[in-house]
Amino acid sequence: MSGALSHIRVLDLSRVLAGPWCGQILGDLGAEVIKVERPGSGDDTRHWGPPYIKDAEGGDSREAAYFQSANRNKQSLTLDFTQPEGQRLVRELVAQCDVLLENFKVGGLAAYGLDYESLKAINPRLIYCSITGFGQTGPYAKRAGYDFMIQGLGGLMSLTGRPEGEEGAGPMKVGVALTDILTGLYATVGVLAALNQREQSGIGQHIDVALLDVQVACLANQAMNYLTTGAAPKRLGNAHPNIVPYQDFPSADGNFILAVGNDGQFRKFCEVAGVAHLADDLRFATNKARVAHRVELIPLLRQATVFKTTAQWIELLETAGVPCGPINDLSQVFADPQVQARGLRLDLPNALGSTTPQVASPLRLSATPVAYRSAPPLLGQHTDDLLERLLGMTEAQVAELRKAGVI
């Protein structure tokens, strides 16, 4: 392996999405990632189907598409660390690993002697990343946390959905588990920072990443809008709280997005749309004025946009230098020429004798590019190899562990 992290070995004890997302990024960057799973059942998301990927005969396998989204470039080791022998094996693996990822409840692994303090004594260079719903401290620390509830508790849903008074108004979650994904990204940043610091100090550290912390941190300008004014932002549907016009508009055959970012772009749009006089109207001439008078402006613009198709608007506005775009479903996304040119769809050979579709990493490194070495593994696919290769076990010893239900 020649990736940026090809010298790093990761023991991934995490399940579902946030932790596995971090592990997949590290694996894409070249790290050897060992995914530890429960014998017989494995990661919960293996069963979150349908849909399932296809086997060699074209039928549905038992491998859920959800699991496939966050577990490529990993090796699967089935191991029951609730048993003393399983705990011993984890400790032996930790001695040979650089990073450990886990997302158990606070204190959950201490019962097995697999908490940070215990494992640091075995491997002082270990970087131990804990991902929880609410962090290691605070009144909610013992609670379980899931993306949906964190989107609600952390304020994101209060900002998402149609405004009050409109049909269908009400708080709405984002269409993907965005808090989990962002938490996985922050966890990755933390791991990379700790690895860099270890190069100087020679010792590892504990990383505490919480879904709630990440959700609140990622409220970005909306959080600052509140902290600056003391007024909680309201739902605006597809509109922007600080920029107008910056939302969806109807076309002759559907809808499109208009993303005007400055007064010059607004003037250009008005000229293309045949409403140049609006750019000279003092109510709309500046962004500050447009935000104050959005209720008057938006209906006027909607009256103008319905006379051309989405494709016509995009062609005209791109020529004029006004940011705009379509609202694609996923079939249109993966058919888009830019998406195809960037190679965002992959198909990796799998252990079923078929291929697993994947979405490529967005990271493009010139000297150490991302490598797609393997499709997400079958449950326990690499157990024997890992125990024999890393821990020097014989086939007979591995067979005994399997007979005892440890692996």
Brief digest:
This protein is α/β, with parallel strands linked by helices and 407 residues long. Helices cover 39% and strands 15% of the residues.
Task: Please specify the SSE layout and strand pairing.
Blueprint: E1 9-12, H1 18-28, E2 32-37, E3 52-54, E4 60-64, H2 65-68, E5 74-78, H3 84-94, E6 99-102, H4 116-122, E7 127-132, H5 147-153, H6 156-159, H7 178-201, E8 206-210, H8 211-217, H9 220-229, E9 246-251, E10 254-259, H10 263-273, H11 277-280, H12 287-292, H13 294-305, H14 310-320, E11 324-326, H15 330-335, H16 337-341, E12 345-349, E13 355-359, H17 383-391, H18 395-403
Parallel strand pairs: 1-2, 1-6, 2-5, 6-7, 7-8
Antiparallel strand pairs: 3-4, 9-10, 10-11, 12-13
Helix pairs in contact: 1-7, 7-8
Structural account:
With 407 residues, the chain is α/β, with parallel strands linked by helices. The chain has two domains: 9-217 and 340-403, Crotonobetainyl-coa:carnitine coa-transferase, domain 1 (Rossmann fold, 3-Layer(aba) Sandwich); 246-329, formyl-coa transferase, domain 3 (2-Layer Sandwich). 39% of the residues lie in helices and 15% in strands. The chain contains 18 helices and 13 strands. Helix 1 (18-28) crosses helix 7. The two termini are 28 Å apart.
In angstroms, what is the radius of gyration? 25 Å
- Strands, total number: 13
Shape field: elongated
Total count of helical runs of at least 4 residues: 18
User: How much beta, percentage-wise?
Assistant: 15-25%
CATH class of the largest domain: Alpha Beta
CATH architecture of the largest domain: 3-Layer(aba) Sandwich
Largest sheet: 6 strands, parallel
How many distinct folded domains? 2
Question: Remind me, CATH topology of the largest domain?
Answer: Rossmann fold
Spatial order of the strands in the main sheet? Answer: 5-2-1-6-7-8
Percent helix, as a range, is 25-40%
Structural class: alpha/beta
The low-confidence runs, each spanning 5 or more residues with pLDDT under 50, are none
- Tell me the span between the first and last alpha carbons: 28 Å
Average pLDDT reading: 96
CATH-wise, what's the superfamily of the largest domain?
Crotonobetainyl-coa:carnitine coa-transferase, domain 1
